[in-house]
Amino acid sequence: MAGRLASVRVPLWSNVFWTMLVFLDPLAAVLVALRPRLGAVLALLVMVADVAINSDWACRLGASGGVGALVLPAQAFFLGVVLAGFPMLRALQPDARGA
Fold it and tell me: Which residue in 85, 25, 17 sits closest to 52, CA to CA?
């Protein structure tokens, strides 16, 4: 089963979350393009959860050096980008379907 999990050193719920990102990340990107207000909410929720979970596991596992040392700061930076853009996307007029 280890070959099917993102990491065997973390609980199943973390692996399920990381696997769900395969679907949630592209969905958020599409929604930001098609329904910006809804996409902004999903993107913000995904990024906050992702940075929180990855930060927790980086602290628990002592991730330092290598690729891990670059990934978390990059995710935190992108969270800042999402936070900065959130008010602008939420201020857009809803589309015809009432996003």
Answer: 17
3-state secondary structure of 22: helix
pLDDT in tens, 20-47: 999 999 999 999 889 988 999 999 999 9
95's CB contacts (< 8 A; 6+ apart) are 34, 35
pTM above 0.85, yes or no: no
- Domain edges within the chain: 11-91
Output the six-digit token pair for 41.
């909410």
Cα separations in angstroms, 74 against 11, 21, 58, 79: 24, 16, 14, 9
